[in-house]
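Training component of the fellowship. As part of building independent skills, the fellow (R.M.) carried out the full modelling exercise for a liganded target. The chosen ligand was LLP. The inputs are recorded below so that the supervisory panel can assess the work.
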Amino acid sequence: PASATLAPGGDVTVGGVPLLELAERYGTPVYVLDEDEVRARARAWRRALPDADVVYAAKAFLCRAVVDWMEQEGLGLDVCSAGELELAATRGFPAERIVLHGNAKSPADLRTALRLGVGRIVIDSAGEIASLAARVPGPGPQQVMVRVLPGIEAGGHRKIRTGGEGQKFGLSLANGDAEDAIARVVGQPCLELVGLHCHLGSQISSPEPYARAVRRLVPLLARIRDRHGITLPELDLGGGFAVAHRPGDPAPAPAAYGRRIHDELIRSCAAADFPVPRLTVEPGRSIMAPAGVALYRVLAVKRTGGRVFAAVDGGMSDNPRPALYGARYTVRRVGRSTAAPMRATTVVGRHCEAGDVLAESVELPDDLRPGDVLAVPASGAYHVSMASGYNLTGRPPVVAVRAGRSRPLMRRETFEDHRSRDIGL
Ligand code: LLP
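Fellow's submitted model of the complex:
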């Protein structure tokens, strides 16, 4: 992974390009994506579950180049808005490989999905069934899945757990909402129910919750067969596979998740006497996070109250994850190695909030000074895609590296971009 090349000492390179050179060429903050690493991780998922569809969760990070990479590696795309759909369409991504999600799909989301002919629309609420059916052009049928809320608590932080009872996603298995919705979908001739979906949460660092989901959903597939006489051919277990942000963080390889899921599927289907459905998984973070590195420049160093603060030229506007989820990262200085001892340093951003902390108490050289470049590994997912325009600092550019060369994928947001939206009076 891009993070593994950040070994202590010497010149740090990603994709064969020194990070310092990238900071100088593109300015900071900048996000660097290792193209080979993204592709290798996409392939690792395909190898982990050779009979499954692997659908990349676009929300982790999407731009036109990434759409192309996923297309070329044979993955599908999980999208949740007309915007993500339009972006995929600009590259002619095969619509039949797109899955549309969302607990509140707007008319524009549905219109765009139906116009482009997406492969699957995942129904998340009972009310959505009739409104989707009313929009399907001609006799259809539009292929759909029903998102089941399996009542399984899993995930790295309360805010990214989506499988337990009592939150906004899916239709509850426990209270019968899922089976009611399934009956209504089956009653709509223009909708074709092809399978069940669930998504448990994110940063799930063990395969066991997925095995549990299989043990709950396969019996539901068997009940649907008994009640409606239809044998659903697909089961989508969503994404949520953990990555390591710091050495030692638990992060099973795709193969480990794949093996456990596959074994449990075979076992549960045998127990329910149900034919093994085609699996889908929707990894986002696990493909993109380890392939990305964020680079910042130190603007100020402050020693106060027994602490050392290194303030950098980005912050919560390009990485809101520490503030939102208490996410922890490692930080490395690149391009300048000295004999200075290491010292616990808190890396903070430039935004006007005390909570704008990128990394609390990380080990950095004691002679840190303005102008030094800091690298934050495992930054490829849910940073740029969640970046905001806070304080008008401008969203950072994204650069791809491969075989010793770099190319810009997205340019830095400028004041002119902002001004052009602010139409005044
Ligand atoms: N499928 C569905 C239906 C999802 O909602 C998500 C993520 C995924 C797949 C992909 O999950 P992944 O493999 O990337 O964990 N902003 C948060 C993460 C939110 C995830 C939302 N849904 C964060 O930065 O931790």
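The panel noted the following from the submitted structure. Residues 100 and 121 are 5 Å apart (CA to CA). The chain is about 30% helix and 25% strand.
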